[in-house]
Please model this.
Amino acid sequence: MSRSPLEPALARHLERITGYLQEAGLRQIPPERRDLRRTLADFMERRTPAVVEPWLRAIGAALGIPEADWPRIREDQAAAIGRWARHIADPADVETYVMLSRHTRQGFISRFPASRFLAAQIRFTQLLAEDIKREFAHDPAQADRLRQLLTQEFQERVLHITDFFVQAREDELRRQEAAYREELLEQEASYRRAIDGAPACILFVDAAAGTLFDINHVAERILGYGREELRGRPSRTSIPRGSGRARPPSGAARSSAGMRAATTSTSSPGAASWSRCSPTRATSSTGRAAGCSSSASTSPTESASRAS
Model:
């Protein structure tokens, strides 16, 4: 019986479902009807071993479950029904939902759609209802009350199971997204190390705005400015520290189409390396065009810094 503190997410989940049941009028038989609840719970625990056999034959064929797996499923189902019966007898005992929450995230049932699991549980509940009608044939009124309680408790169970499967899928998507972001950050860090370690002067240009948004260490040394100082400056003009305003490259330095990166450089210290950004060049993970130009054609990063 689960009496230990619940995980905050599970506690919120249980509170939400309880609210639905109470406020929507879905709980026709209240928790206080302990006599009826105890009678149903005892019946379920007593009759489950017999009900499991026709249930296994039905779902085994429908769901394509190999007979070699039946002993394990028989044992798991009996344990699950036992936990559910204890919750019916005492709604404060929520071990059945603690386990369901865990299994939909990490257990065998997490590998399949929710509909597969629910189909199996619907059939088991139908068989229980039929068994109640037969056993209480001498007391039809009691049979109706027990079947009503069983239906009510199963509807509650469906609400829990549905949310558990949805939450498990959302958790998995968040894990995948986090892993993707981590991989992307590592790729960017590796790319940054390669660019900063390149012997060429490399500028990154925003294709739409025509402004610098990053430079490498060689460019900082040549231009005489830190990358923060140059960020946002027009790509056509840079001001090498102590050398006056430099001129942008002539048209001859650009490609004939005017759309590819153009580079001019001089051999004198402090010379500026100029680039024009191509609108069609590849973009970085920030969404801006990685407009790079190298002042040395022998740079190992030239293939990455040229416009596509």
Q: What stands out?
A: The chain has two domains: 8-181, 198-308. The CA atoms of residues 52 and 179 lie 41 Å apart. The radius of gyration is 34 Å. Strands lie at 203-206, 211-215.
